[in-house]
Amino acid sequence: QEINANMVFMAQIEKVLSESDESSSSAEEPLLRYLITLLSLKVNLSLEL
C-alpha cells in the first residue's frame, strides 16, 4: 500500500513537471525543486524500510 502511495505521488509530480514544461514560469521553479526533493526523500525512506 505504501508503494501505491509512492506511485501516485510520483505520478502527481510528473504531471506537475509536464504541465510546467508547457508554461514554465520562474515562480514555479522553486516549488518544483521542493517537490522533487520531497519525492526523493520519501522514496529513499520507503526503500530503507
TrEMBL record:
It comes from Tanacetum cinerariifolium. This is Uncharacterized protein.
